[in-house]
Design a protein that fits this description.
Blueprint: H1 2-35, E1 53-56, H2 67-77, H3 83-99, H4 104-118, H5 123-138, H6 144-155, E2 159-167, H7 168-177, E3 182-186, E4 188-191, E5 194-199, H8 207-220, E6 228-231, H9 237-242, E7 245-249, H10 253-262, E8 265-267, H11 273-278, H12 283-305
Parallel strand pairs: 1-2, 1-6, 2-3, 6-7, 7-8
Antiparallel strand pairs: 4-5
Helix pairs in contact: 2-3, 2-5, 3-4, 3-12, 5-7
Length: 306
Protein backbone atom coordinates (compact mmCIF):
# COMPACT_ATOMS: atom_id res chain seq x y z
CA UNK A 1 0.00 0.00 0.00
CA UNK A 2 2.87 2.24 0.80
CA UNK A 3 4.49 1.33 -2.50
CA UNK A 4 1.26 2.06 -4.34
CA UNK A 5 1.04 5.41 -2.65
CA UNK A 6 4.60 6.16 -3.63
CA UNK A 7 3.90 5.29 -7.29
CA UNK A 8 0.79 7.46 -7.26
CA UNK A 9 2.84 10.32 -5.85
CA UNK A 10 5.50 9.91 -8.54
CA UNK A 11 2.89 9.92 -11.28
CA UNK A 12 1.29 13.05 -9.91
CA UNK A 13 4.65 14.74 -9.48
CA UNK A 14 5.68 13.88 -13.03
CA UNK A 15 2.49 15.39 -14.37
CA UNK A 16 3.03 18.48 -12.32
CA UNK A 17 6.61 18.75 -13.55
CA UNK A 18 5.43 18.45 -17.12
CA UNK A 19 3.01 21.29 -16.58
CA UNK A 20 5.75 23.29 -14.89
CA UNK A 21 8.16 22.61 -17.76
CA UNK A 22 5.58 23.69 -20.29
CA UNK A 23 4.81 26.87 -18.40
CA UNK A 24 8.50 27.66 -18.01
CA UNK A 25 9.09 27.16 -21.72
CA UNK A 26 6.17 29.41 -22.61
CA UNK A 27 7.41 32.09 -20.23
CA UNK A 28 10.91 31.95 -21.68
CA UNK A 29 9.53 32.29 -25.18
CA UNK A 30 7.40 35.24 -24.14
CA UNK A 31 10.33 37.03 -22.51
CA UNK A 32 12.49 36.44 -25.55
CA UNK A 33 9.87 37.88 -27.84
CA UNK A 34 9.71 41.00 -25.65
CA UNK A 35 13.47 41.37 -25.72
CA UNK A 36 13.61 41.19 -29.51
CA UNK A 37 12.81 44.71 -30.73
CA UNK A 38 9.77 45.00 -32.94
CA UNK A 39 10.40 46.30 -36.44
CA UNK A 40 10.40 50.10 -36.31
CA UNK A 41 8.25 52.21 -38.59
CA UNK A 42 10.25 54.18 -41.14
CA UNK A 43 11.23 57.58 -39.80
CA UNK A 44 8.72 60.26 -40.75
CA UNK A 45 9.22 62.83 -42.04
CA UNK A 46 12.10 61.34 -44.02
CA UNK A 47 15.32 63.30 -43.60
CA UNK A 48 16.57 64.87 -46.81
CA UNK A 49 13.64 63.77 -49.00
CA UNK A 50 13.47 66.69 -51.43
CA UNK A 51 10.48 65.16 -53.22
CA UNK A 52 8.33 65.52 -50.10
CA UNK A 53 6.65 68.54 -48.52
CA UNK A 54 3.92 69.25 -45.96
CA UNK A 55 0.68 71.17 -46.42
CA UNK A 56 -1.16 72.59 -43.41
CA UNK A 57 -4.67 74.00 -43.22
CA UNK A 58 -4.75 77.12 -41.03
CA UNK A 59 -8.04 77.66 -39.17
CA UNK A 60 -8.38 75.30 -36.18
CA UNK A 61 -5.43 73.25 -37.47
CA UNK A 62 -2.48 75.58 -36.97
CA UNK A 63 -4.39 78.33 -35.17
CA UNK A 64 -7.41 78.41 -32.88
CA UNK A 65 -10.36 80.03 -34.60
CA UNK A 66 -10.60 81.74 -37.97
CA UNK A 67 -7.78 83.96 -39.24
CA UNK A 68 -10.30 86.12 -41.08
CA UNK A 69 -12.11 86.93 -37.84
CA UNK A 70 -8.91 87.91 -36.04
CA UNK A 71 -7.97 90.05 -39.03
CA UNK A 72 -11.40 91.70 -38.83
CA UNK A 73 -10.85 92.51 -35.15
CA UNK A 74 -7.61 94.23 -36.04
CA UNK A 75 -9.22 96.24 -38.82
CA UNK A 76 -12.04 97.32 -36.50
CA UNK A 77 -9.49 98.56 -34.00
CA UNK A 78 -8.04 100.68 -36.80
CA UNK A 79 -11.45 102.17 -37.72
CA UNK A 80 -11.85 100.29 -40.99
CA UNK A 81 -15.53 99.59 -40.27
CA UNK A 82 -18.31 100.23 -37.75
CA UNK A 83 -19.54 98.39 -34.66
CA UNK A 84 -22.40 96.66 -36.52
CA UNK A 85 -19.82 95.00 -38.75
CA UNK A 86 -17.83 93.88 -35.72
CA UNK A 87 -20.99 92.30 -34.28
CA UNK A 88 -21.46 90.37 -37.51
CA UNK A 89 -17.83 89.22 -37.47
CA UNK A 90 -18.16 88.18 -33.82
CA UNK A 91 -21.31 86.19 -34.49
CA UNK A 92 -19.69 84.40 -37.44
CA UNK A 93 -16.68 83.51 -35.32
CA UNK A 94 -18.82 82.29 -32.43
CA UNK A 95 -20.75 80.05 -34.81
CA UNK A 96 -17.53 78.73 -36.34
CA UNK A 97 -16.09 77.79 -32.95
CA UNK A 98 -19.26 76.46 -31.33
CA UNK A 99 -20.32 74.41 -34.34
CA UNK A 100 -16.81 73.17 -34.97
CA UNK A 101 -17.47 73.07 -38.73
CA UNK A 102 -17.09 75.43 -41.65
CA UNK A 103 -20.59 76.45 -42.68
CA UNK A 104 -20.56 77.61 -46.34
CA UNK A 105 -23.18 80.32 -45.76
CA UNK A 106 -21.33 81.84 -42.79
CA UNK A 107 -18.02 81.63 -44.63
CA UNK A 108 -19.53 83.40 -47.64
CA UNK A 109 -20.86 86.16 -45.39
CA UNK A 110 -17.45 86.56 -43.76
CA UNK A 111 -15.72 86.77 -47.14
CA UNK A 112 -18.22 89.31 -48.48
CA UNK A 113 -17.75 91.41 -45.35
CA UNK A 114 -13.98 91.31 -45.64
CA UNK A 115 -14.00 92.17 -49.34
CA UNK A 116 -16.28 95.16 -48.81
CA UNK A 117 -14.05 96.38 -45.97
CA UNK A 118 -10.76 96.23 -47.89
CA UNK A 119 -12.16 97.63 -51.15
CA UNK A 120 -10.25 100.77 -52.09
CA UNK A 121 -7.35 100.09 -49.70
CA UNK A 122 -3.82 99.46 -50.90
CA UNK A 123 -2.39 95.94 -50.78
CA UNK A 124 0.80 97.23 -49.16
CA UNK A 125 -1.24 98.85 -46.39
CA UNK A 126 -3.06 95.60 -45.56
CA UNK A 127 0.20 93.64 -45.52
CA UNK A 128 1.72 96.07 -43.04
CA UNK A 129 -1.36 95.98 -40.83
CA UNK A 130 -1.37 92.18 -41.06
CA UNK A 131 2.02 92.09 -39.32
CA UNK A 132 0.62 94.06 -36.39
CA UNK A 133 -2.58 92.02 -36.20
CA UNK A 134 -0.59 88.79 -36.06
CA UNK A 135 1.20 90.01 -32.94
CA UNK A 136 -2.00 91.34 -31.36
CA UNK A 137 -4.43 88.48 -31.95
CA UNK A 138 -2.91 85.47 -33.67
CA UNK A 139 0.51 84.65 -32.20
CA UNK A 140 -0.92 83.39 -28.90
CA UNK A 141 -3.47 81.19 -30.69
CA UNK A 142 -1.02 78.95 -32.53
CA UNK A 143 -1.39 75.29 -31.51
CA UNK A 144 2.03 74.22 -30.13
CA UNK A 145 1.42 70.62 -31.17
CA UNK A 146 0.74 71.48 -34.80
CA UNK A 147 3.64 73.91 -34.80
CA UNK A 148 5.91 71.08 -33.66
CA UNK A 149 4.68 68.87 -36.53
CA UNK A 150 5.51 71.61 -39.01
CA UNK A 151 8.93 72.08 -37.45
CA UNK A 152 9.64 68.35 -37.81
CA UNK A 153 9.20 68.68 -41.57
CA UNK A 154 11.40 71.76 -41.67
CA UNK A 155 14.08 69.99 -39.63
CA UNK A 156 13.97 67.13 -42.14
CA UNK A 157 14.78 69.62 -44.88
CA UNK A 158 11.28 69.70 -46.36
CA UNK A 159 9.21 72.69 -47.42
CA UNK A 160 6.07 73.49 -45.42
CA UNK A 161 3.13 75.42 -46.85
CA UNK A 162 -0.04 76.84 -45.33
CA UNK A 163 -3.13 76.17 -47.46
CA UNK A 164 -6.08 78.31 -46.42
CA UNK A 165 -9.20 80.14 -47.52
CA UNK A 166 -7.88 83.22 -45.68
CA UNK A 167 -6.54 86.09 -47.81
CA UNK A 168 -3.17 85.14 -49.24
CA UNK A 169 -1.55 88.30 -47.83
CA UNK A 170 -2.52 87.33 -44.28
CA UNK A 171 -1.58 83.70 -44.85
CA UNK A 172 1.86 84.77 -46.06
CA UNK A 173 2.40 86.88 -42.95
CA UNK A 174 1.50 83.93 -40.69
CA UNK A 175 3.69 81.52 -42.66
CA UNK A 176 6.68 83.85 -42.49
CA UNK A 177 6.25 84.54 -38.79
CA UNK A 178 6.16 80.78 -38.12
CA UNK A 179 9.25 80.21 -40.22
CA UNK A 180 7.37 78.20 -42.85
CA UNK A 181 8.14 78.14 -46.56
CA UNK A 182 5.09 80.03 -47.76
CA UNK A 183 1.32 80.03 -48.12
CA UNK A 184 -1.46 79.35 -50.57
CA UNK A 185 -4.53 81.49 -49.91
CA UNK A 186 -7.53 83.23 -51.45
CA UNK A 187 -6.46 85.93 -53.89
CA UNK A 188 -8.38 89.23 -53.85
CA UNK A 189 -8.30 91.21 -57.07
CA UNK A 190 -6.25 94.40 -57.11
CA UNK A 191 -5.58 96.98 -59.78
CA UNK A 192 -2.48 99.17 -59.49
CA UNK A 193 -2.00 97.87 -55.95
CA UNK A 194 -5.56 98.73 -54.81
CA UNK A 195 -8.22 96.16 -53.89
CA UNK A 196 -11.31 96.14 -56.13
CA UNK A 197 -13.56 94.22 -53.75
CA UNK A 198 -13.63 91.13 -55.99
CA UNK A 199 -11.92 87.75 -55.90
CA UNK A 200 -9.66 86.18 -58.50
CA UNK A 201 -11.52 82.96 -59.23
CA UNK A 202 -13.07 81.58 -56.04
CA UNK A 203 -12.09 81.18 -52.39
CA UNK A 204 -9.38 78.59 -51.76
CA UNK A 205 -11.73 76.16 -50.06
CA UNK A 206 -12.54 72.47 -50.41
CA UNK A 207 -11.65 71.15 -53.88
CA UNK A 208 -9.86 74.41 -54.71
CA UNK A 209 -7.29 73.64 -52.01
CA UNK A 210 -6.60 70.26 -53.58
CA UNK A 211 -6.09 71.90 -56.97
CA UNK A 212 -3.70 74.45 -55.47
CA UNK A 213 -1.65 71.70 -53.80
CA UNK A 214 -1.60 69.69 -57.02
CA UNK A 215 -0.41 72.70 -59.02
CA UNK A 216 2.27 73.62 -56.48
CA UNK A 217 3.51 70.02 -56.32
CA UNK A 218 3.87 69.93 -60.10
CA UNK A 219 5.74 73.25 -60.13
CA UNK A 220 8.04 72.17 -57.28
CA UNK A 221 8.67 68.66 -58.64
CA UNK A 222 7.14 66.97 -55.58
CA UNK A 223 5.93 63.39 -55.28
CA UNK A 224 2.53 63.69 -53.59
CA UNK A 225 2.67 60.08 -52.41
CA UNK A 226 5.61 61.14 -50.20
CA UNK A 227 3.97 64.37 -49.01
CA UNK A 228 1.88 65.03 -45.90
CA UNK A 229 -1.24 67.14 -45.35
CA UNK A 230 -2.90 68.24 -42.13
CA UNK A 231 -6.43 69.58 -41.53
CA UNK A 232 -9.27 69.73 -39.02
CA UNK A 233 -12.14 69.86 -41.52
CA UNK A 234 -13.97 67.32 -43.65
CA UNK A 235 -14.05 70.03 -46.31
CA UNK A 236 -10.34 69.33 -46.81
CA UNK A 237 -10.76 65.61 -47.53
CA UNK A 238 -9.91 66.30 -51.22
CA UNK A 239 -6.55 67.80 -50.18
CA UNK A 240 -5.87 65.10 -47.59
CA UNK A 241 -6.68 62.37 -50.13
CA UNK A 242 -4.03 63.68 -52.52
CA UNK A 243 -1.05 62.84 -50.31
CA UNK A 244 0.51 59.68 -49.00
CA UNK A 245 0.51 60.87 -45.39
CA UNK A 246 -2.84 62.50 -44.42
CA UNK A 247 -3.36 63.68 -40.84
CA UNK A 248 -6.60 64.73 -39.14
CA UNK A 249 -5.75 67.49 -36.63
CA UNK A 250 -8.43 68.54 -34.09
CA UNK A 251 -10.91 66.90 -36.48
CA UNK A 252 -14.59 67.67 -36.82
CA UNK A 253 -16.91 64.68 -36.47
CA UNK A 254 -17.13 63.94 -40.20
CA UNK A 255 -13.38 64.04 -40.70
CA UNK A 256 -12.79 61.94 -37.59
CA UNK A 257 -15.12 59.24 -38.91
CA UNK A 258 -13.55 59.35 -42.37
CA UNK A 259 -10.02 59.23 -40.95
CA UNK A 260 -10.82 56.20 -38.80
CA UNK A 261 -12.36 54.36 -41.73
CA UNK A 262 -9.23 54.92 -43.83
CA UNK A 263 -6.78 54.46 -40.95
CA UNK A 264 -5.45 58.01 -41.24
CA UNK A 265 -3.46 59.35 -38.31
CA UNK A 266 -5.24 61.65 -35.87
CA UNK A 267 -3.95 64.30 -33.48
CA UNK A 268 -6.10 66.34 -31.11
CA UNK A 269 -4.56 69.28 -29.26
CA UNK A 270 -7.80 70.64 -27.79
CA UNK A 271 -8.40 70.41 -24.07
CA UNK A 272 -11.49 69.75 -22.01
CA UNK A 273 -14.35 67.29 -22.41
CA UNK A 274 -16.57 69.70 -24.23
CA UNK A 275 -13.87 70.60 -26.71
CA UNK A 276 -13.24 66.95 -27.48
CA UNK A 277 -16.94 66.32 -27.97
CA UNK A 278 -17.98 69.16 -30.24
CA UNK A 279 -14.71 70.10 -31.86
CA UNK A 280 -13.91 73.52 -30.45
CA UNK A 281 -10.91 75.01 -28.66
CA UNK A 282 -10.61 75.17 -24.89
CA UNK A 283 -13.61 76.38 -22.94
CA UNK A 284 -11.86 79.56 -21.82
CA UNK A 285 -11.42 80.61 -25.42
CA UNK A 286 -15.05 79.90 -26.21
CA UNK A 287 -16.15 81.96 -23.24
CA UNK A 288 -14.04 84.87 -24.34
CA UNK A 289 -15.51 84.79 -27.83
CA UNK A 290 -19.06 84.34 -26.58
CA UNK A 291 -18.59 87.21 -24.14
CA UNK A 292 -17.13 89.40 -26.84
CA UNK A 293 -20.01 88.57 -29.14
CA UNK A 294 -22.58 89.41 -26.48
CA UNK A 295 -20.86 92.71 -25.69
CA UNK A 296 -20.65 93.66 -29.35
CA UNK A 297 -24.29 92.81 -29.98
CA UNK A 298 -25.40 94.69 -26.86
CA UNK A 299 -23.46 97.76 -27.93
CA UNK A 300 -24.96 97.52 -31.39
CA UNK A 301 -28.50 97.31 -29.97
CA UNK A 302 -27.93 100.34 -27.71
CA UNK A 303 -26.69 102.42 -30.62
CA UNK A 304 -29.53 101.27 -32.84
CA UNK A 305 -32.42 101.61 -30.43
CA UNK A 306 -31.01 103.90 -27.75
Amino acid sequence: MAALGWLTHRRRSATARSVLAGEASAEAARKHSQEVPAPEEPAFPVLGDDKAAAFFDLDNTVMQGAALFHFGRGLYKRKFFETRDLARFAWQQAWFRLAGVEDPEHMQEARDSALSIVKGHRVAELKSIGEEIYDEYMAERIWPGTRALAQAHLDAGQKVWLVTAAPVEIAQVIARRLGLTGALGTVAESVDGVYTGKLVGEPLHGPAKAEAVRALAAAEGLDLSRCAAYSDSHNDIPMLSLVGHPYAINPDSKLRKHARELDWRLRDYRTGRKAAKVGIPAAAGVGAVAGGTAAALALHRRRRFG
